């Protein structure tokens, strides 16, 4: 524990019965990794929501910054040729 | 005769779960962290579910027409059969964890053995409870480790909790003469080896935690005779108030 008065923040990911991948469900505080896992079990899977849990310290996540949005995301907006929208889909193919 | 003895035994188990669950519920809104608040309530609700099964089963076997609610709400202090350990006040978080850890180890031994019972309902009750108890023990062990091996203050408080509660542990696997009859029929396990296994486990773990057993000659018991400490009456007053004031009310 880095600070005796404050527990670390953890992000919680739960894989549900139907789901293939773990989904971010929220965050919580815990004194260490094992406690984080137990807390996640108690806080986020009490009503039979999950079959697997990941917890990770929030500080270990590297995230994109809001003010980088223009160079990060905008370039993909105006190039329609990046999207596979120019194919003719044969009759009889459903759910595309 | 046998039916009465088995019903009384199930009341002993179920009452312990019910009272312990009530104690854990008292932490609601008061635990050191929100996450612990939820965890303690969760364990309490598990125990409440187990108590419901035990009391319902006791009522059926007893055959006097008392269901789980009748048994929970309309018995007096002297008719309650819970372990004295369960009714002890929460104290601080460390003391609550010591009590929980001692009880979880007890439940683990008890339900592992009871799951072999020749009485099918009793075995089913034990199997179902065992799954929950294994998680409870994981939780309480985690906290026993962190408190006893953490800061000096936490260690001291955990030791104090143990000193406070140890005298109520002697009756944990008490088996009376009537119950011996059920042991012969394979309905109940012999408690002597369970007690030995429990004590060995407690010793080993306490060594790992750097905690020591208090010297005490003054063990308290009375669960199976309905002789309680001063605390049970207050718990029942709270637990039974509604049904005593407005019998058979529902919402």
From TrEMBL, chain A:
Q: Which InterPro entries match?
A: PaaB (IPR009359), PaaB_sf (IPR038693)
* EC number(s) recorded for this UniProt protein: 1.14.13.149
GO terms for molecular function, please?
Answer: phenylacetyl-CoA 1,2-epoxidase activity
The main enzyme category here is: oxidoreductase
Q: Which domain of life is it from?
A: Bacteria
Q: Which Gene3D superfamilies match?
A: Phenylacetic acid degradation B
Keywords for this entry? Oxidoreductase
Alphabetized Pfam families for the sequence: PaaB
For this entry, the protein name equals 1,2-phenylacetyl-CoA epoxidase subunit B
Species this protein is from = Acinetobacter indicus
